[in-house]
Write a structure and sequence with these properties.
The chain is α/β, with parallel strands linked by helices and 338 residues long. It folds into 2 domains: 215 residues, Spore Coat Polysaccharide Biosynthesis Protein SpsA, Chain A (Alpha-Beta Complex); 89 residues, no CATH class. Helix content is 41%, strand content 17%. It contains 13 helices and 10 strands. Strands 1, 2, 3, 4, 5, 6, 7, 8, 9 and 10 form a 10-stranded mixed sheet that branches. The longest helix is centred in the C-terminal third of the chain and has 17 residues. The protein is globular and about 60 Å long.
Length: 338
């Protein structure tokens, strides 16, 4: 489990009423009432053909030290659900099948719509939460009632190594998210007000190509409404398996990035952000063998920011100077800051 012994910089502890002490009988009597006043949290775990990983993610969610009401929904996408998960457990667990658009976005939305809690959290089946994750985030969100969305930092586990990815800030604004992707704001760190998801913020975008970049889109939409609160502690461990890329993935990445540029014109209006996306488009185009588009997007990246590293990688791949697999490896390392 992730070490949570470090003090939480951005979380404000709940305070007892004046005149009460922790060891007094009245305070002890009031403890259940205080817990009942905490917002209820629903956790959505989307899964597909990864029973062992999902079991580990579920175990960490059920081990949360959060004192308020909490329930979990495991949503299966395109695979037979395991209804035995709904047996007697420390927290209520519901098992559903995705009845919306196939893919990650529709699976998450199925879970959101199956809840009636105050807050909704996402937890992918290849991640693991620290026991204090929800407590820290709820405290941070309660301290900022004008906000609708809270994230935390992550710890990346890859090839036997673990390394934290911190943001070095406690608030994330739209300007931050268009200038840089901020990969440490992983979807499994998201905790949101359910009223916002069902209202002005909206659900996860199910028209995102391949359900790719749907988390970045949701963050951008949230930040446009109010600043995103961030707990800058690595409270979520993300397991990052290295998998070979496919032609389908090339096309999906290209389509999703172009979809993001159309959906969020702020990205094009930010030179560093635009250069980064154009650099990635150039790299994926080169990987797919489309050298014409690789040169085209490289030129657009250079016009926005000639120092953009992705541009140099794309030009090297398009010109045949380096192998495409090396470019893709560099893209992966860059995405996770390694």
């Amino acid at each position: 489990m992730i070490d949570t012994a470090q003090p939480m910089r951005n979380a404000r502890p709940y305070r007892l009423a004046p005149g009460r002490s922790r060891d007094s009988s009245p305070a002890a009597t009031a403890a259940p009432t205080a817990a009942a006043n905490l917002p209820s949290v629903g956790v959505v775990i989307p899964t597909r053909e990864r029973p062992e990983a999902m079991s580990q993610a579920l175990k960490a969610v059920l081990a949360q030290d959060y004192a308020g009401p909490m329930r979990v929904i495991v949503v299966y996408d395109g695979t037979p659900p395991d209804y035995l998960l709904a047996r007697a457990l420390p927290r209520p667990v519901m098992v559903l099948s995705n009845w919306r658009t196939p893919g990650l976005a529709g699976t998450r939305n199925t879970g959101v719509l199956g809840l009636d809690t105050d807050l909704v959290a996402f937890c992918d089946d290849d991640t693991e939460w620290a026991s204090g994750k929800l407590t820290a985030q709820v405290q941070a969100l309660v301290a900022r009632p004008e906000s609708e969305f809270v994230t935390c930092a992550i710890e990346v586990e890859h090839a036997g190594h673990r390394s934290p990815r911190l943001a070095d800030q406690d608030t994330v604004r739209i300007e931050d998210l268009v200038a840089a992707r901020m990969e440490m704001l992983h979807s499994s760190t998201f905790l949101m007000r359910r009223t916002a998801l069902l209202g002005g913020l909206g659900l996860v975008a199910e028209d995102a190509p391949g359900s790719d970049n749907e988390d970045w889109d949701l963050l951008l939409r949230a930040a446009k409404r109010s600043p995103v609160v961030h707990v800058d502690q690595a409270l979520v461990r993300v397991r990052w398996p290295r998998q070979p890329h496919s032609a389908y993935e090339y096309a999906t990445r290209i389509s999703s990035l172009r979809w993001m540029m159309t959906r969020h014109p702020e990205i094009r209006g930010c030179r560093p952000g635009a250069a980064r996306v154009y650099g990635e488009l150039a790299c994926w185009s080169a990987a797919s063998g489309n050298r014409r588009d690789a040169w085209y997007f490289s030129a657009k990246a250079i016009r926005n920011n000639w120092r953009e590293p992705g541009t140099a990688m794309a030009i090297a791949a398009a010109s045949g100077v380096v192998r495409v697999d090396r470019v893709l490896g560099a893209l992966d390392r860059r995405a996770w800051g390694s």
